[in-house]
Amino acid sequence: GQQVMQIPQYQHVQEGEDFTTYCNSSTTLSNIQWYKQRPGGHPVFLIQLVKSGEVKKQKRLTFQFGEAKKNSSLHITATQTTDVGTYFCAGRVRGGSNYKLTFGKGTLLTVNP
Amino acid sequence: KAGVTQTPRYLIKTRGQQVTLSCSPISGHRSVSWYQQTPGQGLQFLFEYFSETQRNKGNFPGRFSGRQFSNSRSEMNVSTLELGDSALYLCASSLGDSSNQPQHFGDGTRLSIL
């Protein structure tokens, strides 16, 4: 079953407001990746976090990996209409003898101008 | 550098038929993964191929199969199509281990089953 849970499923904000999406796993992740999918488009890689407690920033986006490596968050400061899309987290979990990425169901962000 | 190319972009089939989807990865990428995307279930992992070998498999029935050729191009086959197979099928390529490196997605093949 789904091992990576993502909340909220939907988020609507006014332009300029902040936005956060959370990703939680039932098992320890060796890394976590974040992707953005614009409406009608395909997922685009944003970042990968590997270390416990890691924090990375990309302009207005801040990504965090929890100390226990079971959760992660993506925070957008002062949203813009260009931020519209679905944000997915994907955790690296062991699947049999290999690792595989398990995607969360995503958070759809809409921004009211 | 050309991106990941998937063909065809759209496909309409009827129940019971079979279908083959194609994916050409970014040049130099040896790993190809396939995902099924539906509004209710999000992105679900089908399988990953690396150097012509299936390295990992998701929880899909045996009707879903794939293969990878020596040039890293990959195909996915679905037999005995069901209505529930209607979805966007995405292919993603990466240099190596797809779970540890950025994946580059194609635009997908939208499959509709009538």
Structural class of chain A: mainly beta
How much of the sequence lies in strands of chain B comes to over 45%
Helix content of chain B: under 10%
Q: If helices are DSSP runs of H or I spanning 4 or more residues, what is the number of helices of chain A?
A: 0
Total number of strands of chain A: 11
Please give the radius of gyration of chain A in angstroms. Answer: 14 Å
Largest sheet of chain B: 7 strands, mixed
Question: Helix share of residues of chain A?
Answer: under 10%
Overall form of chain A? globular
**Shape, principal axes of CA atoms of chain B:** globular
Instruction: Give me the Rg of chain B, rounded.
Output: 13 Å
- Poorly predicted residue ranges of chain B: none
Question: Low-confidence segments of chain A, ≥5 residues, pLDDT <50?
Answer: none
Instruction: Report the end-to-end length of chain B measured between terminal Cα atoms.
Output: 37 Å
Order of helices and strands of chain A: EEEEEEEEEEE
Mean pLDDT rating of chain B: 94
- Biggest sheet character of chain A: 6 strands, mixed
Tally of helical segments of chain B? 0
Largest interface: A-B, 24 and 25 residues
Number of strands of chain B: 11
Q: Would you give an account of this structure?
A:
- The complex is a heterodimer of chains A (113) and B (114).
- With 113 residues, chain A is mainly beta.
- In chain A, 0% of the residues lie in helices and 59% in strands.
- Chain A has no helices and 11 strands.
- In chain A, strands 2, 4, 5, 9, 10 and 11 form a 6-stranded mixed sheet that branches.
- In chain A, strand 7 and strand 8 (71-76) form a beta hairpin.
- Chain A is globular and about 45 Å long.
- Chain B is an all-beta fold and 114 residues long.
- Helices cover 0% and strands 53% of the residues of chain B.
- Chain B contains no helices and 11 strands.
- Chain B has strands at residues 5-7, 10-13, 19-24, 31-38, 42-50, 53-57, 64-68, 74-78, 87-94, 104-105, 109-113.
- In chain B, the strands form 2 sheets. In chain B, strands 2, 4, 5, 6, 9, 10 and 11 form a 7-stranded mixed sheet that branches.
- In chain B, a hairpin with a 5-residue loop joins strand 7 (64-68) and strand 8 (74-78).
- The termini of chain B are far apart.
- The A-B interface holds A 30-31, 33, 35, 41-45, 48, 88, 90, 92, 95-96, 98-106 and B 33, 35, 41-45, 48, 55-56, 58, 90, 92, 97-108.
